[in-house]
Structure prediction request, 226 residues.
Amino acid sequence: DQQVKQNSPSLSVQEGRISILNCDYTNSMFDYFLWYKKYPAEGPTFLISISSIKDKNEDGRFTVFLNKSAKHLSLHIVPSQPGDSAVYFCAASEPGTYKYIFGTGTRLKVLA
Amino acid sequence: NAGVTQTPKFQVLKTGQSMTLQCAQDMNHNSMYWYRQDPGMGLRLIYYSASEGTTDKGEVPNGYNVSRLNKREFSLRLESAAPSQTSVYFCASLQRLNSNQPQHFGDGTRLSIL
Prediction:
């Protein structure tokens, strides 16, 4: 049973446009959500996170939105750049468990 | 500033051989993790160690053992490798000042089992 799901395996976006990556979860106990970016032959690197007490968190071109009632989060990248081309993973954790569950990833391709 | 270091970076094994993947972090982090990444499956948690002296099973622990040797090091052992264990293995660590912290990952070990 997959608790964190990314239903779009891939996404292509023109440079300068908005990229929207989506993630759904089933465990209502999750209280912390993260997005990681992964380039080939490298480990995932942390991008942005959000606590369940918020519904939005911004960091430069990256914004994460959380809709707790729908158990859905999304990552917006504006404007998208070719260097953003990577695989993006969402992850979630329950309070006090120190256990992080990842989604299957979405491969983003930003076209120049 | 090495962060999380994994060795080896690549390994080819024959079915039935044993192997230990090494992971060390120099950030004085409390928690450490082992994940495997397979196409279409994302990152799946194998085992984790919330603190020195403790280890717990993740989503896919079968066929693996772990040792939290000290605060810095967390190893993953395959006692009898199987082709289904061909994967990219990532180690991660977490400071754990409170629960809301991101993990830091190593660059992975690419393991092929023939």
